[in-house]
């Protein structure tokens, strides 16, 4: 069993253990070379103290040391943990960590070159309440214990309109999130995709999820909050195309009446 260190700087498992083989393969054989910039970012990712990555995604075969230990071992506090799933460059993770120092934020994505941006921002802004996790979200329950997470944001997920099971907001994924989120925990979706937004509203009815907030177009609603103040990379693109940005927040089996 790997030993956990109080000081997360000395954790034995992160970046170097999991990413180096890929980088070495690319640098030596180079059959289908990644851009130099990507390789540079991957190499730099290995040095980041706020990034944990399981490059071969074999979470099922070995226990992840921070599972059940994020508070005690990484954050050194008992503050609520908020996840941003499919975080890309981590704009919500960073933006909310700055606004809410009394919470901890973890950005999750499978793309290392995008996560690099968030990690770098977290380090440059000296944010101690931030971490990033490079994994497949399908495997999320191998990285967090039951009730270890208090809130989940899903920001501009790929709509996956043809394959429901792959939607990060489908019952398939929500049932995984239910294994790690506090029973009162809220799941937030921000999207440019009207079909996905409507899908969540319809699915909520079928699955008995309780919608606690539902805003079809946050920029027309007069909202002045993290919903409009923080914009992600993809959001900026969709805004330039004139798309409405929708928001919906829900809990499972919660009895508060929705204000629609
Ligand atoms: C459209 S991008 C949005 C990124 C960011 N939230 C934004 O708004 O700019 C979707 C992100 O989800 C990530 N993603 C999609 N499916 C995933 C999965 N199953 N596991 C991990 N990451 C995933 C992709 O790598 C990508 O960065």
Could you describe the 3D structure shown?
This protein is α/β, with parallel strands linked by helices and 260 residues long. The protein has one domain: Vaccinia Virus protein VP39 (Rossmann fold, 3-Layer(aba) Sandwich), CATH 3.40.50.150. It is built from 9 helices and 8 strands. The protein has an 8-stranded mixed beta sheet, sandwiched between helices. The radius of gyration is 18 Å and the shape is globular. The site of S-adenosylmethionine has 19 residues, from helix 9. The site of S-adenosylmethionine (SAM) has 19 residues, from helix 9.
Q: Detail the poorly predicted runs.
A: 1-27, 254-260
**How many separate domains?**
1
Query: For this structure, what is the CATH homologous superfamily?
Result: Vaccinia Virus protein VP39
| Major sheet characteristics | 8 strands, mixed
Structural class: alpha/beta
Bound molecules: S-adenosylmethionine
Helices and strands in order, then pairings?
Blueprint: H1 15-28, H2 36-45, E1 51-53, H3 70-75, E2 81-85, H4 91-99, E3 104-109, H5 112-124, E4 130-134, E5 149-155, H6 171-178, E6 181-191, H7 194-207, E7 209-215, H8 226-229, H9 233-240, E8 246-252
Parallel strand pairs: 1-4, 2-3, 2-5, 3-4, 5-6
Antiparallel strand pairs: 6-8, 7-8
This protein binds S-adenosylmethionine.
Residues 86-88, 109-111, 114, 136-138, 155-158, 168, 232-235 line the site of S-adenosylmethionine.
What are the key terms here?
single chain; 260 residues; 8 strands; 20% strand; disordered N terminus; binds S-adenosylmethionine
Summarize the structure.
The chain has 9 helices and 8 strands. The protein is of the alpha/beta class. It has one domain (60-252): Vaccinia Virus protein VP39 (Rossmann fold).
């Amino acid at each position: 069993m790997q030993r956990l260190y109080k000081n997360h700087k000395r954790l034995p498992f992160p970046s170097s253990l999991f990413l180096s083989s890929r980088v070495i393969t690319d640098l030596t054989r180079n059959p289908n070379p990644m851009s130099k910039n990507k390789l540079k970012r991957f190499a730099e990712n290995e040095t980041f103290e706020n990034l944990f990555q399981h490059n071969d995604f074999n979470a099922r075969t070995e226990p992840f040391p921070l599972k059940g230990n994020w508070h005690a071992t990484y954050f050194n506090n008992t503050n609520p943990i908020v996840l941003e799933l499919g975080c890309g460059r981590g704009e919500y993770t960073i933006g909310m960590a700055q606004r809410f120092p009394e919470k901890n934020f973890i950005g999750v994505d499978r793309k290392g070159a995008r996560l690099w941006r968030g990690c770098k921002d977290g380090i440059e802004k000296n944010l101690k309440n931030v971490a990033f996790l490079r994994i497949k979200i399908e495997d999320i329950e191998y990285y967090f214990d039951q009730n270890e997470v208090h809130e989940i944001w899903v920001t501009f997920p790929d709509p996956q309109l043809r394959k429901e099971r792959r939607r990060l907001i489908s019952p398939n994924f929500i049932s995984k999130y239910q294994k790690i989120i506090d029973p009162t925990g809220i799941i937030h979706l921000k999207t440019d995709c009207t079909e996905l937004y409507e899908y969540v509203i319809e699915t909520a009815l079928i699955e008995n999820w309780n919608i606690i907030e539902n805003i079809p177009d946050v920029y027309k609603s007069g909202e002045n909050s993290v919903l409009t103040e923080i914009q992600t990379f993809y959001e900026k693109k969709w805004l330039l195309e004139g798309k409405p940005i929708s928001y919906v927040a829900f809990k499972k089996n919660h009895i508060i009446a929705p204000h629609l």
